[in-house]
Amino acid sequence: MLLEREAELAQVAEALRAAAAGDSSLVLLTGPMGIGRTALLQQLPMLADGEEIRVLRANAAPVEQDFTLGVVRQLFDSLLTGAPGELHESRLGEEGDLYRTVFSDDAPLLDDGGTLTMPEEALYGLRSALAAVSADSPLLILVDDLQWVDAPSLRWLAFLVKRLHGLRAVVVCGLRDGYRRPGDPLLREVVDAARRVLRPAPLSLGATKEVIHEQFGVPGDEEFARACHETSAGNPLFLKSVLAELAVGGLRPTAGQVEAVRSLRPALLRERLAGSLRVQPRPARDLAAAIAVLGGQAEPDLLARLAGLDPIGFLATLRDLHEVGLLAAEQEPRFLHRVVQDAVESSMTVAERERLHDAAAALLYHNGRPAELVAAQLMAVTNSGHPWAVEVLRAAADTALRRGAPRTAARYLRRALLDGSLAGEGRARLLIDLATAERGFDPAACERHISQAIPLLTTPRLRAAAALRISPTIVGLGPPSAIDLLHQVAEDLGPATSLEGTARDVALRLEARLRHAGHEDPAELAAAVERLSALGEEPALITAAERELTAVLLNSAVLTARWSAAEVSRLANRILEREPATSEQVHTPLPLVVIGLVAADSVRGISSWLAMEQQTRRQGGTVADALVNVQQAMVLSARGRVSQAREYAERAVRLAEVHWQEAGVVSTLALTRVALDLQDPVLIERILDGPGRRRSSSLALTATLQFAKAAQDAGNGRWTSALETLLACGRQLEASGWRNPVLFAWRPWAAELHRRVGDPGAAGALAEEELLRAREWGAPVALGRALRVKARLIGGDQGVRLLRESVDVLRASADELELARTLLLLGRQLRSGGEAAAVLQEAGALAAACGVPWLVERIRAADGSGASAAPPEAALTRTERTVASLVGRGLTNQEAAAELGVSSRAVEKHLTSSYRKLGVSGRRELIELLPRMDL
């Protein structure tokens, strides 16, 4: 929207009419940044609508100043590619091989005193080419940001604007106020050749109101509009920036937002305030600088000492600053607006700012202020000579870590490393502290700093302990450089059997990391299981090191299914009983215990432990946050709570976008499990198009993506392709020793696909093999699923018996989704009658609670074709029927609670129970069902 620029448009239109009559001219469009030069230039081609005027455009940019003849090429590009009858390469060739000279990549430019320029014949040739085009129609030549034009193009423009006579052309150049390339006579030649200089004026109050209306869709309050107009000083760019910021914050153009408008930090106001400050006496400038530097610690005594004022002078100067309009109150050292802070800082040199921050740090330190307050001042100083500076920064980093701000801690520690006095183990300790802070958001930097610290440490134990600060990759392969580093320090340290105390614990933790690094090697997995068996039936879990090693070894037993689910569950729970739930566990192999419990179908007791773990950390954008969300998604998926699991998995994937190496694989695994349970083709396609294929060769990720590809093929009816993919995946898993029937349940799916493609023999063989594996492993979810697969293949009365057995087994499972699927199949197999209806009703309630719409629909379809079911309201209690009726009347939870005299939480609980019993997914489906219910 272009406002109040009619005069400028009229002048350019007048110049075009004169050019059509043979009087060409240059128009210079100038003004301060943001006044709207570019917007006006973009509007000028509209003047050619309905007229036979040819428009040539070029936009200069700082990054393109080294692009020789960039602006000239832009102007001539449309002519070179135009319709027949316009300028073409062949026609340019008539002007002394002009095409090769100007537009080829090896154009022979001349060096005029270090500045590239064009040969004289090229300058004349381009003008002749324009003359040929202008003979047919007048030209409007637009060049924006003249200050950024490359030197050869500027040379041609300076040549052209002096020779416009006879061209029938208007050249309009935009130039920012106050910008002149030092000693550039060509730019001056162009500027001086302008016949008209247009300077768009600031917007009026009326125009400001129109901009407000456009931004918010409603007219702004009069007081609000005046505040915007005053703050922006009519500058269109600044006005729109202010309004956009307000809109993003959800604010409306009302009088109540006037203070919000005035508290913003407009650059124009900042410069005006800075100019006002520069003419103040030295004491006023010094005190304003002291207030800006000390910020929230601007206490009178500290301010006076930092500004070098005595008490009387301090009070007098405060009064002066208030009269100037910089302070909120006469005797209060607080700036009127945040923009004043910007103005004060912009009026200081870099050296002045550093000197003041260094002096402020010393004042705060000697006055016993907290380390982070002192460190905040030191952060603004490149090099401080204070002997206490490093320890203060280190203490501030510790404080930041304890309050859950690792990035802030890392900044403090990086600043401490700039101290040149640090060397040897002192520098190593600082590097290790920095790596510890970084491992949650920048693991690559963590590894780099640990590698720098290790050569500075004097003992093998210290070097090994430092290497352990690198977080392990829970699923997938860790960086080879990190694994090599672990091997190196482990070799120096020696085996745990030869060590005692802390050194032994370090050796055990190193062993855990190295054994986990081999979890895709069948020989390493077998060795790890043997090591686990050697620990005995009751391995020592006294120290954290022993628990970490046991967790890794137990993971090998899970992947290989060499132990039973019951044995895995018992030992995993023993580990968690002895392991406090803290957020730091994500930097150890202990999250492997969660995978083990998921595989063992023993997750009912872990939710509270994970909740405690999550409570100990602050949510942010770190690797640890991604892994915590993955664990929650895995446990919810194992319980069949798919819709809830999706929320955590989606969040984990978003966090893993910037931490792919550390969390990308495991988050993709979690989301794929959700996508498969939901049978969501859009989500499956998104996973397959994601970064997984390009970024990792992890066996777990490869298998997961193969599952997703098989699901995509099966969903499109490509049964054979899906089967081939699954069988290839199974062979790869078996070759690696991964035999767990819960983590990668490929056989049940492959058996079903064999049945679909007409190979019942192969289907039966896979079903039998899966049933054998499931019985050996012993997890209810695996056994119940295997029984269902076999029952589906056999059918008949024997199939029903197997389905009943599957239901009995799955009732002991945490996975309600698997139970719902078996109940659906059983309900279909049963003859019409009350039992079939009851079975399907239970299946529907479970499927709705799990949040799986496709299964809910199948159960409804099956229920409709079977015996008459009990009326839906029969499943509800009296209170649940009452709450449902209130919801049907359109009451909110709070309104229903008020009518019943209970809490809104109680209403929510009754609604949730009703959803489960009725097999609906939420309030909308409940309301749709109400007309069929007698409430």
Short synopsis of the structure:
By secondary structure, the protein is mainly alpha-helical.
Mean pLDDT: 84
- From the alpha carbons, calculate the radius of gyration and give it in angstroms: 37 Å
CATH superfamily of the largest domain: P-loop containing nucleotide triphosphate hydrolases
The stretches of 5 or more residues where confidence is low (pLDDT under 50) are 865-870
What is the CATH top level name of the largest domain? Alpha Beta
* N→C terminal distance: 58 Å
Count every helix, treating DSSP H or I runs of 4 or more residues as helices. Answer: 49
Bin the helical content. 55-70%
Our estimate of the beta-strand percent is under 5%
Please summarize the sheet with the most strands.
Answer: 5 strands, parallel
CATH level 3 topology of the largest domain: Rossmann fold
Tell me the overall shape.
Answer: globular
Question: Count of DSSP E strands?
Answer: 9
CATH architecture of the largest domain: 3-Layer(aba) Sandwich
Domains counted in the coordinates: how many?
Answer: 7
Order of strands, main sheet, comes to: 2-5-6-1-7
- The secondary structure category is mainly alpha
Structure notes:
The protein is mainly alpha-helical. The chain has 7 domains: 5-198, Rossmann fold (3-Layer(aba) Sandwich), CATH 3.40.50.300; 203-264; 265-348; 355-420, no CATH class; 473-479 and 493-671, Serine Threonine Protein Phosphatase 5, Tetratricopeptide repeat (Alpha Horseshoe); 691-863, Serine Threonine Protein Phosphatase 5, Tetratricopeptide repeat (Alpha Horseshoe); 878-932, Winged helix-like DNA-binding domain superfamily/Winged helix DNA-binding domain (Arc Repressor Mutant, subunit A), CATH 1.10.10.10. It contains 49 helices and 9 strands. The strands form 3 sheets. A 5-stranded parallel sheet has the order 2-5-6-1-7, with helices on both faces. Helix 31 (606-615) packs antiparallel against helix 32 (623-638), helix 32 (623-638) runs antiparallel to helix 33 (642-656) and helix 41 runs parallel beside helix 43. It is globular and about 100 Å long.
